[in-house]
Design goal:
This protein is α/β, with parallel strands linked by helices and 294 residues long. It folds into 3 domains: 5-85, Orthogonal Bundle (Arc Repressor Mutant, subunit A); 94-163 and 266-291, 3-Layer(aba) Sandwich (D-Maltodextrin-Binding Protein, domain 2); 165-263, Periplasmic binding protein-like II (D-Maltodextrin-Binding Protein, domain 2, 3-Layer(aba) Sandwich). The chain is 41% helix and 20% strand. It has 9 helices and 12 strands. The protein has helices at 5-18, 21-28, 32-46, 62-87, 102-119, 171-177, 223-231, 241-250, 279-291, and strands spanning 51-53, 58-60, 94-100, 123-129, 143-147, 155-163, 165-169, 192-194, 218-220, 237-240, 254-255, 265-272. A 5-stranded mixed beta sheet has the order 4-3-5-12-6, with helices on one face. A 3-stranded antiparallel beta sheet has the order 10-7-11. Strand 3 (94-100), helix 5 (102-119) and strand 4 form a beta-alpha-beta unit. The radius of gyration is 27 Å and the shape is elongated.
Length: 294
């Protein structure tokens, strides 16, 4: 097909979405004959009929349905490309959708938002406070930060700080059940697990490959609630150090088996590779890196 064939696909998509040649012609600003000609050339080049034509209406053939699904994907990518190109030199604007874990949302994000909005008032924010690694493309999320989950190949993970996982319990729990001396002792303790962890990842950042056969008696999807359960002497938890630092200093929680775990792991901000050039995302990442204090 000739280079101008992309126009034929756009014409096809318009006809399919609007349900008629006349409506498509009006939307495209061309004659009905031009639309019919483009569709005929596209059908000839594909060697397949795309529409079932009657005197009253048109309908997609099976081949047309398949092509429509592909054209919708192409249109989405073209729209993103057009937005990127038009936004290279513009001030940040539009909606910025961010996923952030609750701790960072409360302690870090509010300050960042206040600074960002003062500089770029045309940007509208949608914040998702959650403890998971979302499908950024499928859920149309621009930025994720405050976690250290493995990133898919099409996602950039940029380090913004470090943390470490701390295994701990309350002194009252340890007095009643005994303090674990080796990692396998955990098999005989009440372990509280985050639901985001898999069966093979119940203990994070172990130095060796000796994984105890832990059977959590309580699974929770919120780290702060896990901490409160540990403060109620209900069991042993493993959380990031920044979440339990005050309780460790006050003695309300006691670290155990520290030598069994690696000292530090990175904290990341994530963004899609092809979206970083968008001013709203680029400026937020730069501000985050400049202001972040681990």
């Amino acid at each position: 097909m000739a280079q101008q064939s992309l126009q034929y696909f756009e014409t096809f998509l318009c006809v399919a979405e609007l349900g008629g040649f006349t409506s498509a012609a009006k939307a495209l600003g061309v004659s009905k004959a031009a639309v019919s000609h483009a569709i005929r050339l596209l059908e000839e080049s594909l060697r397949a009929p795309l529409f079932i034509r009657t005197t009253r209406k048109i309908a997609l053939t099976e081949e047309g349905e398949i092509l429509l699904a592909q054209c919708e994907k192409i249109k989405q990518e073209l729209d993103i490309a057009r937005q990127l190109i038009s936004g290279f030199e513009r001030s940040p604007s539009g909606k910025l959708r961010i996923s952030c874990n609750p701790y960072f949302a409360e302690t870090k994000l509010a300050k960042l938002l206040a600074t960002y909005i003062k500089k770029f008032p045309k940007v509208i924010f949608e914040i998702l406070s959650e403890e998971r690694m979302p499908d950024m493309a499928k859920e149309n999320i621009d930025i994720v930060f405050g976690i250290n989950w493995p990133a898919p190949p099409d996602i950039v993970a940029r380090e913004i700080g470090t943390t470490r996982y701390v295994l701990c319990a309350s002194p009252q729990y340890l007095k009643k059940h005994g303090k674990p001396k080796v990692i396998t002792d955990l098999e005989n303790h009440h372990y509280i697990q985050h639901t985001g962890r898999s069966k093979d990842n119940r203990l994070v950042n172990l130095k060796n490959h000796t994984i105890p056969a832990i059977k959590p008696y309580l699974s929770i999807n919120n780290a702060n609630l896990m901490k409160h359960c540990a403060l109620q002497h209900m069991g042993i938890i493993q959380l990031h150090d920044y979440m339990i630092e005050p309780e460790l200093k006050s003695g309300k929680l006691v670290e155990i088996l520290a030598s069994c775990f690696k000292p530090n792991i990175p904290i990341y901000v994530y963004y899609q590779k092809h979206r970083f050039v968008q001013p709203k995302i680029k400026q937020f990442i730069q501000l985050l890196i400049a202001q972040y204090k681990p």
